């Protein structure tokens, strides 16, 4: 009996410390400061969230192409209005919180032509001198404003968007891409992969003396096998966030809607269009599991349904471009979680025929083995969607989104895989005012409670 008690003690102690060590990385996109009305998010809204966050990543900085130095993308807010300092000062009120500045993040659109878009993120890593210039400027900025480190949300070119094909051409395309890989708008990928590894190594050497953190965010639709060498990067990074979402977006896929952030592979989709594939790639290629952070979105992607979209809403389905902009975010094709929840029909509205609201469809899928597994925490989910058929003057709408339940499932997946934790991208698009149920930050709360 004594032996059993000792074993039980160590099991419980291990579970406690594993939970305590799990990271919850909270991203904060400063563009939310410029929204209007209920969508406006300033630093005061952060405090209820930070009790759940181990790290806060503030974005975004960019690259000055004229001199290869880091620069604020919103100098008026970040420097003139002192937001950088106010963000880093949050550590005084939340002991243990680590605050990082992020560079890139898909926000630094310095090129106008597709082939030139975000070119500074490639040119700055190509020579020792340009790398050193950027590293020194980043270190100065981070130290000057008392950040704990820098997050490299590096803007490498994205994979080419999927085209809608016939079954025959689709089969042939799958064969050729299996052999040749997806086409990327970069003719120096091998060199850039090696240069980025050197860049990270040089960054770590510069940061080590001051104890600064260095992290990597892998942006959606950037091919990890093309640009990143996990084995070589692992010793120099504190952790890597895999942004496992935006597999489909209305900008990249205006004629077809599908799940935007599936956890597992779906039938008749590309095998890498899911979070589990990305996690396994990084694990199998040398990144320790405790350095991998699973990125979870708080926002929805939306498309406009037409009469050709069918009646069931089951994805994938033909579509006609981005859905209408929400009242808070004001961006076609994107809704915050609190914009989505107010559009979902209540049980009373369902009985009354939805009345222009969205019909929510919880993930109906289960893999075969789950029918024999009663542990709900390992349920494999593809995602939640909602839709409204076009009728009269009411436009159709199809929405793929994360809710508290699906986000919690992904946190459970991260725990089961022994990953370092999860990332919330980002807190400004969660229900930070508590408009849905009265509880603020329902998605963030859900993942924290699962870890």
TrEMBL record:
GO annotation, cellular component aspect: extracellular region
Location(s) in or outside the cell: Secreted
Top-rank taxon: Eukaryota
SUPFAM superfamilies, per the entry: (Trans)glycosidases, Chitinase insertion domain
GO BP of this protein: carbohydrate metabolic process; chitin catabolic process
TM region positions: none
PROSITE patterns, A to Z: GH18_2
Range of residues in the leader sequence: 1-20
Domain GH18 residues, every copy: 22-451
GO molecular function terms attached to this record: chitin binding; chitinase activity
Main location, first listed in the record: secreted
Keyword set, alphabetical order: Disulfide bond, Glycoprotein, Secreted, Signal
Family: Belongs to the glycosyl hydrolase 18 family. IDGF subfamily.
Protein name according to UniProt: GH18 domain-containing protein
Lineage, opening ranks: Eukaryota, Metazoa, Ecdysozoa, Arthropoda, Hexapoda
